[in-house]
Design a protein that fits this description.
Length: about 140
């Protein structure tokens, strides 16, 4: 059964090769020391992930999904000098094989940058290469 606004806590976060946000190393709640992630889901869809360090929220992540429910955009926000959550630190973009549905590429770009890191995956979802790419916007 699906739950609205379900919160779960983890030591780490990943996006699976099938495009689903996945918590790693579940914990009971907010950790007083170290980094942890609070994943908020609504009807089995992850809406936001809050990132905490030593008990303080330092970032949060929002996701964009394709029509198959796979993450295609993963944007991380941090507070600006006024404490507003407006600055996007980086955005990860994901591409998938139309036949297998597995991730083929992950591209990390910082807003305003003309370069990005591109990671490619083989047909089994294994990481096979990493390179820097240049955009000509």
């Amino acid at each position: 059964m699906s739950e609205a606004n379900k919160k779960e806590w983890y030591k780490d976060l990943d996006i699976s090769s099938k495009g689903k946000p996945t918590g790693i190393g579940q914990v009971d709640g907010l950790l007083a020391a170290g980094v942890c992630y609070c994943i908020t889901s609504n009807n089995d869809t992850v809406e936001q992930v809050d990132v905490y360090e030593d008990g303080q929220r330092i970032h949060y992540k929002k996701f964009g999904y394709d029509n198959l429910g796979r993450v295609i955009e993963n944007a991380m926000y941090s507070p600006d000098d006024n404490g507003e959550w407006r600055i996007i630190d980086d955005i990860w973009y994901y591409e998938y094989d139309p036949k297998t549905g597995l991730r083929t590429k992950k591209i990390m770009r910082t807003p305003g940058s003309s370069t990005a890191k591109e990671i490619s995956y083989d047909k089994d979802g294994n990481r096979i290469s990493e390179r820097v790419i240049t955009f000509h916007d």
